[in-house]
Amino acid sequence: xxxxxxxxxxxxxxxxxxxxxxxxxxxxxxxxxxxxxxxxxxxxxxxxxxxxxxxxxxxxxxxxxxxxxxxxxxxxxxxxxxxxxxxxxxxxxxxxxxxxxxxxxxxxxxxxxxxxxxxxxxxxxxxxxxxxxxxxxxxxxxxxxxxxxxxxxxxxxxxxxxxxxxxxxxxxxxxxxxxxxxxxxxxxxxxxxxxxxxxxxxxxxxxxxxxxxxxxxxxxxxxxxxxxxxxxxxxxxxxxxxxxxxxxxxxxxxxxxxxxxxxxxxxxxxxxxxxxxxxxxxxxxxxxxxxxxxxxxxxxxxxxxxxxxxxxxxxxxxxxxxxxxxxxxxxxxxxxxxxxxxxxxxx
Length: 347
Hints:
Elements: E1 2-5, E2 18-19, E3 24-25, H1 60-66, E4 81-86, H2 94-107, E5 112-116, H3 124-128, H4 138-142, H5 148-151, E6 153-154, E7 161-165, H6 179-190, E8 199-203, H7 210-216, E9 221-226, H8 230-245, E10 250-258, H9 260-264, H10 271-278, E11 281-286, H11 290-297, H12 309-323, E12 328-331
Helix pairs in contact: 2-12, 6-7
């Protein structure tokens, strides 16, 4: 059983909700509620795609009512909030996180500009289904070939979400192009006629080379995406140190691709183990085969109907990001055996 605690927790997890195998006890303000199996490390998944389905005691319309926001979250901090989404290790879900968290913020009513800072290997436009609408990039804006508003691609589904790519695929940045260009971009977005965006989200390239330094330069907060495996965690720990050296102290974490069946078999670190190493999490995203389908369709998970558990988890991570909150998962019974970091090497 896992107790989820937070100061003010929106859907899908009510305040001080206790998740067990059989039932859920909850505060009277939230009715009804559903079980989230990926938060229980003692109950493995029973299906390949975790799609939210109504229980026998509640109708589908009743469950849909639970998914409505109880209130609009209060935006903490000064605008624009410049957030870099990074990891160090490739393939952990940075771009997927950027697309889903960014659109979730837009659905909450905040204006968002997402920047794909991966030079020559951009993919954010593909995940958003905007690849055919990217005509200009930041490099062409800096060269004077187009205006900034021409390079920004507005999403037709949510007009308060815009995409900007740094460069075209398979291209190289011009000599001297670096972090100062993104600093200029942030200042230009602040003073544009359309108004200052609430969030500027930067999709950071993999690695810790020049592309990484360029992406983190204008940011004042970071979201560290990791998976519960030792290679990803070691890279995440290294990136945390580099972010702090650059002056970014507000670092949050998203644990992606969590599989409770592997946690139960002690083949994967639990979320609690990850939190002990890297700090409290902004969100926990379960492994979901629907991610591949949504990527190929250019249709982010948070737009799926009916919603998947992974999509709901991204939505809640976005809510916490707005209010600068964190997720705290506390074991209240059946605590698993304590395992150290080196136990995964056989120690």
